[in-house]
Amino acid sequence: MNKLFLAISLACISFLASGIAHAQSEQQIRTELQKKIGANTKIKSVTASPISGIYEVLVGNDVFYTDANSKYLIQGEIVELATGKNITEQRHADLNRIKWSELSPTNAFKTVRGNGSRQLAVFSDPNCGYCKRLEKSLQQLDNVTIYTYLIPILSADSAMKSKQIWCSADPQKAYIDWMVNGIAPSGKSDCTTPLDKNMAFAKTYGITGTPTLFFTDGSRFPGAVQISDIEKKFSSIK
What is the pLDDT of residues 111-131, one digit of tens each? Predict the structure, then answer.
């Protein structure tokens, strides 16, 4: 028993030592690479990739790779040939994921069709052409609840339209009237709105373009996504 205990203890010490050395190596790579790329580009983390001797470098939510000597900075994708899995693409998806519970429904207006069982959040600017294209496509969805968060990021007029939409008697109708039917919002714009909160949320989670969609599993789809892709995503969410 004593010999077994000693063997287990030595194995644990070896494992811990390996882990410490590994962490030190990653920190050293990060330090050396940071010196070379300059202080203006902040490295968030350096971690081992699935390829021996290659390390993932995270700058914001952008993924790069480097070697153990910090000699090269590699921009590209790692694909696992046995499965066809794009590891870099999956990493990007994970980095851009949010917790659905962090969205506040009170800062959006809600559209319910059918039984409303499938949920979707859309961040939109009323002067965004791609948002208008997406909104017309979304009319085809059934059994869905859509939360629309206005973020006026394109112009001062975007802010004015967003306020007029939110301050209308029926914000959801005013939004659809404008985005789908081309009926410009009018009326007051001096009510209390959640626009500042939505803009703060967008800044925190790196929502820099519209439209941006989120699903209940936290995944993010940027741009005017095809309805077929939205349906496919809904089908994949358990």
Answer: 999 999 999 999 999 999 999
